[in-house]
Amino acid sequence: MIRIVRIDLDETLGDRLGYRTSRLAGREANAKSARRSWKSAINERTGIKDALLSMAAGIERCMYCGDSRGTDIDHFEPIRFAPLRTFDWWNHLLACSTCNSNAKRDAYPCDEHGDSLLVNPSAEEPSDHLELTLSEGKYTGRTHKGWVTIHIFQLNRTDLSLGRATAFARCKSMLRDYLNLEISERPDEAAITKLALERQPFADVLHAMYKVADLPGAATVLGGDDVLKVLSRWREGG
């Protein structure tokens, strides 16, 4: 899971979502009526999904697992708990069907103060709560919130762990390829390689590699000085 930068909606769509919310509030909507209103709001749902797709990492990846294509609009705080947030732009995230319908569903655990125990990647930095072990492709929690998020989204299911470990090997290889292309003075091919790496699934792997690059012994963890050299330069915008 990586940080997602939320964009501002165009004024027309924002106004429509505000109008929908005011209608729900005026009718003191419950979960059933809010879901009915959501289902009928075809244009609003299309606009929201298009905006989420433009925000997603890689090529329209799920904002939770980072692997599968995002196909669903997930209400981060589910409609059954917060019907008046049904059309709240800040409550919408892009999810794959597995994360949305099989893993999270209507789960929304909170602490004793009523604050969510799920990491919201568009509102906070996931790495504050989650740590990725690159060689294993598995997450551990830095905080209680991190552990709850791993459990609810099933972030360590076998396919995801294997996928991340494979992505780590692929990242190392592509970073070396990039460096060799630069040395060979083939800048166009190097640029294509960089773009392909940034667009691949499991963007969390590359982001975790950036963070490891700051640590002592980073070259050993990342697979060599050549890999570390490219990562350090990219991180600085080079």
Short description:
The protein is mainly alpha-helical. The protein has ten helices and four strands. The chain starts with 10 loop residues before the first helix and ends with a helix.
Describe this structure in words.
- By secondary structure, this protein is mainly alpha-helical.
- It has two domains: 11-110, no CATH class; 159-235, no CATH class.
- The chain has ten helices and four strands.
- It has helices at 11-26, 31-40, 42-55, 97-104, 144-153, 158-183, 187-199, 203-212, 218-222, 225-235; strands at residues 72-75, 92-95, 130-133, 138-141.
- The strands form two sheets. It has a two-stranded antiparallel ribbon.
- A hairpin with a 4-residue loop joins β3 (130-133) and β4.
- α6 (158-183) packs antiparallel against α7 (187-199) and α6 (158-183) crosses α10.
- It is elongated and about 65 Å long.
- The mean pLDDT is 95.
Outline the fold blueprint.
Layout: H1 11-26, H2 31-40, H3 42-55, E1 72-75, E2 92-95, H4 97-104, E3 130-133, E4 138-141, H5 144-153, H6 158-183, H7 187-199, H8 203-212, H9 218-222, H10 225-235
Antiparallel strand pairs: 1-2, 3-4
Helix pairs in contact: 6-7, 6-8, 6-10
Q: State the major sheet.
A: 2 strands, antiparallel
The largest beta-sheet arranges its strands as 1-2
Give unreliable regions as ranges.
none
Shape designation: elongated
- Structural classification: mainly alpha
Strand content: 5-15%
Number of helices: 10
Chain-averaged pLDDT: 95
Could you state the oligomeric state of the chains shown? single chain
Q: State Rg.
A: 20 Å
What is the helical fraction, as a range of percent? 40-55%
- The helix-strand sequence is HHHEEHEEHHHHHH
Task: Give the number of DSSP strands.
Answer: 4
> What is the number of independent domains?
2
How far is the first residue's CA from the last residue's CA?
24 Å
